[in-house]
Q: What sequence folds into this?
Protein backbone atom coordinates (compact mmCIF):
# COMPACT_ATOMS: atom_id res chain seq x y z
CA UNK A 1 0.00 0.00 0.00
CA UNK A 2 1.09 3.53 -0.52
CA UNK A 3 0.02 7.15 -0.41
CA UNK A 4 -0.87 9.32 -3.38
CA UNK A 5 1.03 12.60 -3.36
CA UNK A 6 -0.41 15.48 -5.37
CA UNK A 7 2.23 17.84 -6.74
CA UNK A 8 1.14 21.43 -7.42
CA UNK A 9 1.71 22.77 -10.93
CA UNK A 10 4.42 25.11 -9.61
CA UNK A 11 6.62 22.16 -8.63
CA UNK A 12 6.04 19.81 -11.55
CA UNK A 13 9.16 20.99 -13.32
CA UNK A 14 11.00 19.08 -10.56
CA UNK A 15 8.94 15.87 -10.85
CA UNK A 16 9.30 15.24 -14.59
CA UNK A 17 5.90 16.87 -15.08
CA UNK A 18 4.11 14.32 -12.89
CA UNK A 19 1.14 15.55 -10.85
CA UNK A 20 0.46 12.34 -8.92
CA UNK A 21 3.03 10.12 -7.30
CA UNK A 22 2.70 6.94 -5.25
CA UNK A 23 5.05 7.00 -2.25
CA UNK A 24 5.55 4.96 0.90
CA UNK A 25 5.46 6.37 4.40
CA UNK A 26 3.39 6.56 7.55
CA UNK A 27 3.78 10.21 8.49
CA UNK A 28 3.83 13.47 6.56
CA UNK A 29 7.54 13.81 7.33
CA UNK A 30 8.40 10.34 6.01
CA UNK A 31 6.48 10.94 2.81
CA UNK A 32 8.12 14.34 2.22
CA UNK A 33 11.49 12.69 2.80
CA UNK A 34 10.65 9.97 0.27
CA UNK A 35 9.61 12.64 -2.21
CA UNK A 36 12.82 14.63 -1.78
CA UNK A 37 14.86 11.46 -2.02
CA UNK A 38 13.29 10.73 -5.40
CA UNK A 39 13.52 14.34 -6.62
CA UNK A 40 16.40 16.02 -4.75
CA UNK A 41 15.96 19.36 -6.56
CA UNK A 42 12.63 19.70 -4.78
CA UNK A 43 14.40 19.73 -1.43
CA UNK A 44 15.11 23.46 -1.01
CA UNK A 45 11.54 24.34 -1.99
CA UNK A 46 10.01 22.05 0.61
CA UNK A 47 12.43 22.01 3.54
CA UNK A 48 14.55 24.72 5.15
CA UNK A 49 18.22 24.43 6.16
CA UNK A 50 17.20 22.81 9.43
CA UNK A 51 15.18 20.14 7.66
CA UNK A 52 11.86 21.66 8.74
CA UNK A 53 8.95 22.06 6.35
CA UNK A 54 9.12 25.52 4.71
CA UNK A 55 6.56 27.92 6.18
CA UNK A 56 5.13 28.58 2.73
CA UNK A 57 4.33 24.91 2.11
CA UNK A 58 1.06 23.53 3.38
CA UNK A 59 0.34 19.84 3.54
CA UNK A 60 -3.20 18.55 3.33
CA UNK A 61 -3.94 14.96 4.27
CA UNK A 62 -7.26 14.25 2.66
CA UNK A 63 -9.06 17.58 2.99
CA UNK A 64 -7.32 18.57 6.22
CA UNK A 65 -4.42 20.99 6.58
CA UNK A 66 -2.03 19.33 9.04
CA UNK A 67 -0.41 22.62 10.06
CA UNK A 68 -2.20 22.71 13.42
CA UNK A 69 -2.74 18.99 13.77
CA UNK A 70 0.60 17.30 13.93
CA UNK A 71 2.56 18.92 11.09
CA UNK A 72 5.23 16.57 9.80
CA UNK A 73 4.36 14.10 12.56
CA UNK A 74 0.76 13.75 11.37
CA UNK A 75 -0.14 10.20 10.42
CA UNK A 76 -1.03 9.40 6.83
CA UNK A 77 -3.16 6.27 6.52
CA UNK A 78 -2.50 3.84 3.67
CA UNK A 79 -4.36 4.76 0.53
CA UNK A 80 -4.82 8.38 1.66
CA UNK A 81 -4.00 11.41 -0.51
CA UNK A 82 -1.38 13.94 0.55
CA UNK A 83 -1.54 17.28 -1.21
CA UNK A 84 1.09 20.04 -1.25
CA UNK A 85 -0.55 23.46 -1.36
CA UNK A 86 1.17 26.84 -1.67
CA UNK A 87 0.77 29.33 1.15
CA UNK A 88 1.50 32.54 -0.70
CA UNK A 89 3.04 35.30 1.37
CA UNK A 90 5.47 38.17 1.30
CA UNK A 91 5.39 41.92 1.47
CA UNK A 92 7.58 44.97 1.21
CA UNK A 93 8.85 44.78 4.79
CA UNK A 94 12.25 43.15 5.06
CA UNK A 95 11.98 41.91 8.60
CA UNK B 1 7.64 37.55 -20.49
CA UNK B 2 4.23 38.08 -19.01
CA UNK B 3 1.47 39.44 -21.17
CA UNK B 4 -1.52 40.99 -19.48
CA UNK B 5 -4.57 42.67 -20.94
CA UNK B 6 -5.18 46.26 -19.98
CA UNK B 7 -8.43 45.19 -18.37
CA UNK B 8 -6.67 42.69 -16.10
CA UNK B 9 -4.09 45.31 -15.24
CA UNK B 10 -6.85 47.73 -14.35
CA UNK B 11 -8.32 45.16 -11.96
CA UNK B 12 -4.95 44.94 -10.19
CA UNK B 13 -4.52 48.72 -10.10
CA UNK B 14 -8.00 49.08 -8.63
CA UNK B 15 -7.31 46.48 -5.94
CA UNK B 16 -3.99 48.17 -5.08
CA UNK B 17 -5.63 51.60 -4.85
CA UNK B 18 -8.58 50.31 -2.81
CA UNK B 19 -6.34 48.51 -0.31
CA UNK B 20 -3.88 51.40 0.11
CA UNK B 21 -2.20 51.99 2.56
CA UNK B 22 -2.38 48.23 3.05
CA UNK B 23 -0.93 45.65 0.71
CA UNK B 24 -3.27 43.97 -1.71
CA UNK B 25 -2.74 40.50 -3.13
CA UNK B 26 -4.31 38.13 -5.59
CA UNK B 27 -3.81 35.40 -8.14
CA UNK B 28 -3.02 35.60 -11.83
CA UNK B 29 -4.73 33.00 -13.98
CA UNK B 30 -3.86 32.25 -17.55
CA UNK B 31 -1.59 29.99 -19.50
CA UNK B 32 2.06 29.34 -20.04
CA UNK B 33 2.53 29.18 -23.74
CA UNK B 34 5.94 27.61 -24.14
CA UNK B 35 9.03 26.35 -22.46
CA UNK B 36 12.14 28.45 -22.04
CA UNK B 37 14.12 29.24 -25.18
CA UNK B 38 11.38 28.14 -27.50
CA UNK B 39 11.19 29.65 -30.93
CA UNK B 40 7.92 31.31 -30.00
CA UNK B 41 9.43 32.91 -26.91
CA UNK B 42 12.32 34.30 -28.88
CA UNK B 43 10.23 35.54 -31.76
CA UNK B 44 7.82 37.30 -29.42
CA UNK B 45 10.66 38.80 -27.41
CA UNK B 46 12.19 40.10 -30.62
CA UNK B 47 8.90 41.45 -31.89
CA UNK B 48 8.29 43.13 -28.56
CA UNK B 49 11.71 44.72 -28.55
CA UNK B 50 11.08 46.01 -31.98
CA UNK B 51 7.68 47.39 -31.04
CA UNK B 52 9.19 48.84 -27.92
CA UNK B 53 11.78 50.82 -29.80
CA UNK B 54 9.53 52.13 -32.50
CA UNK B 55 5.81 52.37 -32.83
CA UNK B 56 4.52 51.40 -29.44
CA UNK B 57 1.08 52.86 -29.07
CA UNK B 58 -1.23 50.40 -27.36
CA UNK B 59 1.30 48.11 -25.76
CA UNK B 60 3.54 49.09 -22.88
CA UNK B 61 6.50 46.92 -22.05
CA UNK B 62 8.89 46.69 -19.14
CA UNK B 63 12.64 47.00 -19.46
CA UNK B 64 14.17 43.58 -19.97
CA UNK B 65 13.68 41.02 -22.70
CA UNK B 66 14.58 37.55 -21.52
CA UNK B 67 14.36 33.89 -22.32
CA UNK B 68 11.59 32.82 -19.96
CA UNK B 69 8.43 31.21 -21.20
CA UNK B 70 5.67 33.47 -22.44
CA UNK B 71 2.69 33.78 -20.14
CA UNK B 72 -0.67 35.27 -20.83
CA UNK B 73 -2.87 36.45 -17.99
CA UNK B 74 -6.57 36.32 -18.77
CA UNK B 75 -8.14 36.43 -15.33
CA UNK B 76 -7.27 38.18 -12.09
CA UNK B 77 -8.68 36.94 -8.78
CA UNK B 78 -8.19 39.39 -5.90
CA UNK B 79 -7.57 37.60 -2.60
CA UNK B 80 -8.13 38.65 0.97
CA UNK B 81 -4.89 39.71 2.64
CA UNK B 82 -5.01 37.50 5.73
CA UNK B 83 -2.26 39.26 7.66
CA UNK B 84 -3.32 41.08 10.82
CA UNK B 85 -4.00 44.78 10.43
CA UNK B 86 -0.98 45.93 12.41
CA UNK B 87 1.41 44.59 9.75
CA UNK B 88 -0.80 44.61 6.67
CA UNK B 89 0.94 47.71 5.28
CA UNK B 90 4.10 45.66 4.88
CA UNK B 91 2.94 42.06 4.58
CA UNK B 92 0.47 39.91 2.73
CA UNK B 93 -0.67 36.33 2.95
CA UNK B 94 -3.03 34.24 0.85
CA UNK B 95 -4.44 31.27 2.68
CA UNK B 96 -4.07 27.82 1.12
CA UNK B 97 -7.85 27.42 1.08
CA UNK B 98 -8.13 30.60 -1.02
CA UNK B 99 -5.41 29.32 -3.30
CA UNK B 100 -7.24 26.00 -3.78
CA UNK B 101 -10.45 27.84 -4.64
CA UNK B 102 -8.63 29.88 -7.28
CA UNK B 103 -6.99 26.76 -8.67
CA UNK B 104 -10.39 25.12 -9.00
CA UNK B 105 -11.80 28.19 -10.75
CA UNK B 106 -8.81 28.12 -13.07
CA UNK B 107 -9.19 24.48 -14.03
CA UNK B 108 -12.90 24.96 -14.73
CA UNK B 109 -11.88 27.59 -17.29
CA UNK B 110 -8.99 25.54 -18.66
CA UNK B 111 -6.51 27.96 -17.13
CA UNK B 112 -3.79 27.64 -14.51
CA UNK B 113 -2.62 29.78 -11.64
CA UNK B 114 0.59 31.15 -13.16
CA UNK B 115 1.33 34.03 -10.84
CA UNK B 116 0.64 36.20 -7.85
CA UNK B 117 0.30 39.94 -7.63
CA UNK B 118 0.74 42.17 -4.62
CA UNK B 119 1.31 45.82 -3.90
CA UNK B 120 4.10 47.69 -2.13
CA UNK B 121 2.53 50.76 -0.54
CA UNK B 122 5.03 53.63 -0.54
CA UNK B 123 7.81 51.23 -1.40
CA UNK B 124 9.61 50.35 -4.61
CA UNK B 125 8.25 47.64 -6.91
CA UNK B 126 11.07 45.20 -6.26
CA UNK B 127 10.87 41.94 -4.31
CA UNK B 128 11.92 42.32 -0.68
CA UNK B 129 13.98 39.86 1.32
CA UNK B 130 10.70 38.79 2.86
CA UNK B 131 9.22 38.12 -0.59
CA UNK B 132 12.28 36.08 -1.49
CA UNK B 133 12.22 33.97 1.65
CA UNK B 134 8.70 32.79 0.92
CA UNK B 135 8.73 32.68 -2.87
CA UNK B 136 7.63 29.70 -4.89
CA UNK B 137 9.36 28.63 -8.07
CA UNK B 138 7.48 28.84 -11.37
CA UNK B 139 5.07 31.64 -10.44
CA UNK B 140 5.36 35.14 -11.83
CA UNK B 141 5.42 37.60 -8.92
CA UNK B 142 3.88 40.80 -10.19
CA UNK B 143 4.46 43.82 -7.95
CA UNK B 144 2.95 47.28 -8.14
CA UNK B 145 4.26 50.17 -6.08
CA UNK B 146 1.61 52.49 -4.69
CA UNK B 147 3.15 55.87 -4.13
CA UNK B 148 0.93 58.08 -2.01
CA UNK B 149 -2.12 56.34 -3.46
CA UNK B 150 -0.83 56.45 -7.06
CA UNK B 151 -0.39 52.98 -8.56
CA UNK B 152 2.74 52.54 -10.67
CA UNK B 153 3.51 50.25 -13.62
CA UNK B 154 4.06 46.64 -12.50
CA UNK B 155 7.31 44.74 -12.44
CA UNK B 156 7.37 40.95 -12.60
CA UNK B 157 9.81 38.40 -11.20
CA UNK B 158 10.42 34.68 -11.22
CA UNK B 159 12.37 32.91 -8.53
CA UNK B 160 15.60 31.26 -9.66
CA UNK B 161 16.36 27.65 -8.71
CA UNK B 162 18.96 28.77 -6.17
CA UNK B 163 16.18 30.45 -4.11
CA UNK B 164 18.55 33.39 -3.70
CA UNK B 165 17.65 35.54 -6.68
CA UNK B 166 15.02 36.33 -9.29
CA UNK B 167 14.89 36.82 -13.01
CA UNK B 168 12.96 39.93 -13.89
CA UNK B 169 10.57 39.41 -16.76
CA UNK B 170 9.14 41.81 -19.22
CA UNK B 171 5.56 42.95 -18.67
CA UNK B 172 3.60 43.50 -21.83
CA UNK B 173 0.21 45.17 -21.61
CA UNK B 174 -2.01 44.35 -24.54
CA UNK B 175 -5.18 45.99 -25.76
CA UNK B 176 -8.29 44.15 -24.64
CA UNK B 177 -9.34 43.11 -28.13
CA UNK B 178 -6.20 40.97 -28.41
CA UNK B 179 -6.95 38.91 -25.35
CA UNK B 180 -9.62 36.84 -23.80
CA UNK B 181 -11.68 39.00 -21.53
CA UNK B 182 -10.65 39.50 -17.98
CA UNK B 183 -14.08 39.25 -16.37
CA UNK B 184 -14.58 40.55 -12.89
CA UNK B 185 -14.58 37.73 -10.44
CA UNK B 186 -17.41 37.83 -7.96
CA UNK B 187 -15.35 36.54 -5.03
ZN1 LIG C 1 6.58 42.28 -1.82
A:
Amino acid sequence: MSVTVKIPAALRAYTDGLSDLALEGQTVGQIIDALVERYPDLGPHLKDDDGQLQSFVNVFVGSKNVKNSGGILAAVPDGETLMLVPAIAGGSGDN
Amino acid sequence: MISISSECLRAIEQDAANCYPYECCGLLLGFDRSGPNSELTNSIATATNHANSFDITDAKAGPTPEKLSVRTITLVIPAVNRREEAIRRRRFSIEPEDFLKAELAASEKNLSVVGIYHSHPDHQARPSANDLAQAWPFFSYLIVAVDNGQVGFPTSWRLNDDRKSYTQEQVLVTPEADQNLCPKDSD
Q: What stands out?
A: Confidence is low (pLDDT under 50) at residues 35-64 of chain B. Chain B has one domain: 2-178.
